[in-house]
Amino acid sequence: MRFLDVIKLPLLFCAHGSAFTVFSSFAENEDALLRHLFRGYQKWIRPVKHANDTIKVYFGLKISQLVDVDEKNQLMTTNVWLKQEWIDHKLCWNPEDYGGITAIRVPSESLWLPDIVLFENADGRFEVSLTVFLLVIEEIIPSSSKVIPLIGEYLLFIMIFVTLSIIVTIFVINVHHRSSATYHPMAPWVRRLFLQKLPRLLFMKGHVDRCAFADPEGTLKPKLRKYKHKQLKDGEKVVVAFLEKTADSIRYISRHVKKEHFIRQVVQDWKFVAQVLDRIFLWLFLVVSVIGSVLIFTPALEMWFHSGL
Asked: Could you tell me which residue ranges the Neurotransmitter-gated ion-channel transmembrane domain spans (predicted)?
């Protein structure tokens, strides 16, 4: 938007001597008035009597010319007349002292001017130094009355979609690397849901149940106790003591093997849960991708078909 500053200069062409005398007298009075008004006048100081006084500015705007209309960027360039009125207490005089002069014209640069700021001014003087992919595509596609272009909506949808996929991937990887050393064993409802029910619905191969190990301690202890109640010879006592040590070693190895198997099975359970989650998010993202693309491009296809008809 452009503003036009106009200074009106009255020109008088006089042919008679009496008229020239009147003009000279008027010019002298106006010159004396200007000297009187601008003696010690500072345009940087507000023209008020008291510091707390407010200056009322009457603002007027009149369109003079329509220069250009950019439909694609929704930008309109115009020339306007800007009219501002206010009272300057420093510029007051008695007309009788200066030949009846009631109005004078002075340059606006010599006066105090109110600071008028036009918000959302699209004057085109601010240029973007970085052009992103969306703006490059927008320059290529035809003009549209929509606030956000179709390619912009689809690109925004893809950006949100990719962001969510990254978050979901991080979550699935976190579940995949869980173990009994970092997390407690999974809850029973998690086991029933992700290891038994959901794999059938997702057409996945069922998870293998944990192998049940026989407890060797239950078979060794009763037999050894029988030998203790009997009267044993010295040789037999040595054999029984050796068998007890052997049974303790077997029990220790059995507990260690069962513990390793339990840890390994917990890790496998969490990995299978991660596979189930990955399959669920795969179908979910596939459905959302198809539905989102259809919803975005359907209005454009309908407009294209109607325009073709």
From this structure: 214-297
99 burial via Cβ count (<10 Å: 0-12, 13-18, 19+):
middle
Q: Give the pair of three-digit tokens for residue 38.
A: 């601008």
Q: What is the pTM of this model?
A: 0.41
- Cα separation, 124 vs 295, in Å, equals 36
Residue ranges in the chain assigned as alpha helix (H): 17-37, 133-140, 150-176, 188-192, 198-201, 217-229, 234-308
Asked whether the CA dihedral 100, 102, 104, 109 is positive or negative, the reply is: positive
Q: Is the model's pLDDT at 19 over the cut of 70?
A: no
Cβ atoms of 107 and 7 within 8 Å: the answer is: yes
High-pLDDT (> 90) share of the chain, %: 8
Question: Counting Cβ atoms within 10 Å, is residue 63 exposed (0-12), middle (13-18) or buried (19+)?
Answer: exposed
Which residues are CB-contacts of 258 (< 8 A; sequence separation ≥ 6)? Answer: 213
Q: Confirm if 247 and 260 have CB atoms less than 8 A apart.
A: no
Environment class of 263 (CB within 10 Å of its CB; exposed 0-12, middle 13-18, buried 19+): middle
Structure tokens at 296: 């975005």
Tell me the one-letter amino acid at 28: E
Note the pLDDT tens digit of each residue in 137-167. Answer: 556 555 555 556 677 788 888 899 999 999 9
3-state secondary structure at position 297: helix
Listing from the earlier edge strand, what are the strands of the sheet with 2-3? 2-3, 75-85, 58-70
In three-state secondary structure terms, 61 is strand
What is the distance between the alpha carbons of residues 190 and 166, in angstroms, rounded to a whole number? Answer: 24
Q: Residue 252 corresponds to which tokens in the numbers above?
A: 């220790």
How far is the C-alpha of 142 from the C-alpha of 72, rounded, in Å?
A: 8
- Average pLDDT of 47-63? 87
Burial of 98 (0-12, 13-18, 19+ CB in 10 A): buried
